[in-house]
Every structure is written in structure tokens, then in C-alpha cells.
Design brief:
This protein is mostly helical. It has helices at about 1-30, 40-55, 60-85, 90-110, 135-140, 145-165, 165-175, 180-185, 190-215, 225-235, 240-260, 270-275, 275-290; strands at about 125, 145.
Length: about 300
């Protein structure tokens, strides 16, 4: 039971950064913006969040700084794809190349190139009285750091926003048929910029979570492919926040399992265990990817002057 409890606890903690990135991509794609640059946005958010936390000693300021860094960097993608109508995939990959390299450069300039690892104090957990004492479920759901509760609240808000509000339906209309949305007086480009802003903010927040709430340090490659796993989670979750939550928990379970297996003493090279989350991603995409379709205008440039 201790092994299972530890596995489930690690599953939730490892699912949270992927969840932030996946919800970020959901807001982007619902506005017709396919941003594959989540990895880069999370990387710059991780560094800026870590540096802000290291300088100020505040985890909350670190999270905010990381989120704002992701937002600012994503404006490069937004201007290029919305205003200049450039290819989404090309500029998403450009963010994935540019942002991690920038983060690595800034880290070395500020902290030097020595081997000493800088540390910050990770955000402490906040337990809910009585509920946290429930066996297995209590520590997993009710004795976590505050960002876990923020992530769950974000999922609930997103479900209500897209399915129960007029603003959410208008938002989705931009991703489905922007020209029809424009005839109804919906600001298509404004909505796309809003989607890019939310995507950048939440992606930076997910990266900052890794350094201020989970590991307490920054290293090159700390995001470790979570941006691409988040893209798979959006497809697996059928562009619905509730489904995305379940998908992220599944990928979090795979990640937690590979960590547990690495320290279990099994005589198998640890690289095989590290493959588990990525193999699971490929398998899931091969099963459901061809059967699901996102918003119809995803990745298509919008030209207001064309009929």
C-alpha cells in the first residue's frame, strides 16, 4: 500500500506541469492556433521562474514571473502567425529552438558555468484538515502544494467557460469557422491574440512549476518533452478539459512508474524505464490520433480581406 500510495502521489505531482501545458494548448487550439512551441515556452518559464524565486525567495513571484516570460516569448509566435499569417508549425518549432537556447544562455551568464547546482526551496504543501487523513486518496488529493488545487480549479473553469458561457461559445467559433464568427461581430484576430496570450501564460506557469514547486532547481532539458506529451494529451482528451485531465493523469502515472522502476533495483538499464512515458504517448496517438479531429480552422491563417 505504501508503494501504491507513493506512486499515486507522484502521479499527481508529475501530471500538473503537463496539465498546465495541455490546457494552454487547448485555449490556443480553440482559437485556431496550433502551437507546437510548448516545450520552448515551458523552458523559458522554468528559468525565469527559478531566477525570480532565487532572487526574491518567493515561490509565488517565481510562478508569476515564469508565466509572464512565457506570455512575452509567445507574442513572437502570435505576431508571426496572426498578423503576418505565417505557418504555425514553422514558428512553433522556432520557439522550441530559440527559447531553450535563450534560457541556457541566460542561466550561464547569471550563475556562471560551474558545476555547483543552485537551489531554491520548493513550495510547501497545504493539507485540507480531515480529508488529508483519508487512506491513499487523502495524501493524493488533499495534501498537495497549492498549484495542484489551482490546476484543478482551472480545469473546472475551462469546462464551464467553453460549454456554458456565451463568451466561450464565441471563442470556440473562431477556431471552427473564423469567417462566420467575423460576420457575427466577433473579433477574430483579437480572440487569436487572446488565445496566444493565455497559451503563453499557462505554458510559462507550467515550466515555472517544475523549478519552484517540484525540483527546486533548474537544469538544461528540465522540461524533458512534456510540451510534446501535452500536445498528445489534448488529442487524447478530445479537446475537452475533463478528458485532458484524465490524459495528463495517465501520462503522470507512466512518468511516476518509470521513476519507481528506476529505483526498484531491477537489473535493466534505466534508459528503458525512461522510455515508458514517450512510448505511451506514441501508442495513444497511434490509437486515437487518426480518429479525432480538432477545431476545423486549426493552423489555418485568417485573411480578413478574403471572402
Amino acid at each position: 500500500m505504501d508503494w501504491v500510495s507513493g506512486l499515486l502521489l507522484a502521479m499527481v505531482r508529475l501530471a500538473i506541469p503537463v496539465l498546465f501545458l495541455a490546457i494552454a494548448e487547448l485555449y490556443g487550439q480553440r482559437a485556431g492556433m496550433v502551437n507546437i512551441g510548448l516545450e520552448g515556452l515551458a523552458s523559458i518559464g522554468a528559468l525565469v521562474g527559478f531566477m525570480a524565486c532565487f532572487i526574491t525567495g518567493s515561490n509565488w513571484l517565481g510562478l508569476l514571473a515564469g508565466a509572464l516570460a512565457g506570455l512575452i516569448v509567445n507574442m513572437i509566435y502570435a505576431f508571426s502567425t496572426v498578423t503576418l499569417c505565417a505557418d504555425h508549425t514553422v514558428y512553433g518549432m522556432a520557439i522550441n529552438i530559440f527559447a531553450p537556447a535563450l534560457a541556457s544562455f541566460v542561466y550561464r551568464v547569471y550563475f556562471g558555468s560551474g558545476t555547483e547546482t543552485k537551489q531554491v526551496t520548493s513550495m510547501s504543501g497545504v493539507g485540507i484538515p480531515v480529508l488529508k487523513d483519508i487512506p491513499v486518496i487523502g495524501p493524493m488529493l488533499f495534501d498537495q502544494n497549492p498549484m495542484v488545487y489551482v490546476a484543478v480549479a482551472l480545469v473546472i473553469f475551462t469546462v464551464i467557460f467553453f460549454n456554458k458561457t456565451r463568451a466561450g461559445l464565441n471563442y470556440k467559433a473562431v477556431g471552427e469557422h473564423p469567417k462566420a464568427a467575423a460576420t457575427l461581430g466577433i473579433g477574430v484576430n483579437c480572440t487569436k491574440y487572446l488565445g496566444c496570450s493565455i497559451c503563453g501564460f499557462l505554458s510559462g506557469l507550467g515550466g515555472a512549476y517544475l523549478t519552484t514547486c517540484y525540483s527546486g532547481t533548474y537544469t538544461d532539458g528540465i522540461v524533458s518533452g512534456r510540451g510534446f506529451i501535452a500536445l498528445a494529451a489534448v488529442i487524447f482528451g478530445r479537446w475537452n478539459a475533463g478528458g485532458i485531465l484524465l490524459a495528463c493523469l495517465f501520462f503522470g502515472l507512466c512518468d511516476a512508474l518509470q521513476i519507481k522502476l528506476q529505483v526498484s533495483g531491477i537489473a535493466i538499464p534505466y534508459q528503458f524505464f525512461q522510455m515508458i512515458p514517450y512510448v505511451a504517448t506514441v501508442v495513444i496517438l497511434s490509437v486515437v490520433g487518426a480518429k479525432q479531429a480538432g477545431p476545423k480552422a486549426n493552423g489555418h491563417p485568417y485573411h480578413p480581406e478574403q471572402r
